[in-house]
Design goal:
The chain is of the alpha+beta class and 143 residues long. It folds into two domains: 72 residues, no CATH class; 60 residues, no CATH class. Helix content is 39%, strand content 10%. The protein contains five helices and four strands; from the N terminus they run ββααααββα. A hairpin with a 2-residue loop joins β1 and β2. The radius of gyration is 22 Å and the shape is elongated.
């Protein structure tokens, strides 16, 4: 009767990886990555990431409340600003004002708390837009 499967790798006997454990580790990695990279709600991040899991792996993941705390902790540690609810709450720390290639990304900010206008683009992106016949704008807030 064999309870564990083993394999030999470079003259070492290793316990075969648990597919559910591997899937759980990838799930946690993706949760943490999304927590750092987007402003989606913790519930949405967990839901979208959980959809990719097999039913066996779903049984082994942490409860939603624990996963939400993981996301909140990551965002607090990384000083990621919370999603603003009003124009006045929209503050952009210096590390979010430039692109990865250190190009200025906030081209214009009139700082009007009632009718604020922000223009986000790098010079390279403006070059692409210059060649377009039409532009689309996003009205994010409606107060």
């Amino acid at each position: 009767y064999i309870t564990n499967m083993f394999k030999i790798y470079q003259d070492h006997v290793c316990q075969a990886s648990d597919p559910n454990g591997t899937e759980k580790a990838l799930f946690m990695y993706e949760i943490k990555k999304k927590a750092e990279q987007c402003h989606d709600s913790p519930r949405l991040i967990i839901h979208e990431t959980r959809l990719k899991l097999s039913s066996d792996a779903t049984i082994n993941i942490s409860p939603c409340t624990a996963l939400r705390r993981v996301i909140q902790r990551i965002r607090q540690e990384e000083n990621i600003p919370t999603e603003p609810k009003t124009f006045a709450e929209s503050v952009f720390p210096p590390n979010l004002q430039n692109t990865i290639t250190n190009q200025k990304f906030i081209l214009s900010d009139n700082s009007d708390h009632h009718r604020r206008l922000l223009i986000f683009a790098s010079k390279e992106q403006l070059g692409f837009s210059n060649g377009c016949e039409s532009w689309q704008c996003d009205d994010t807030f409606s107060e």
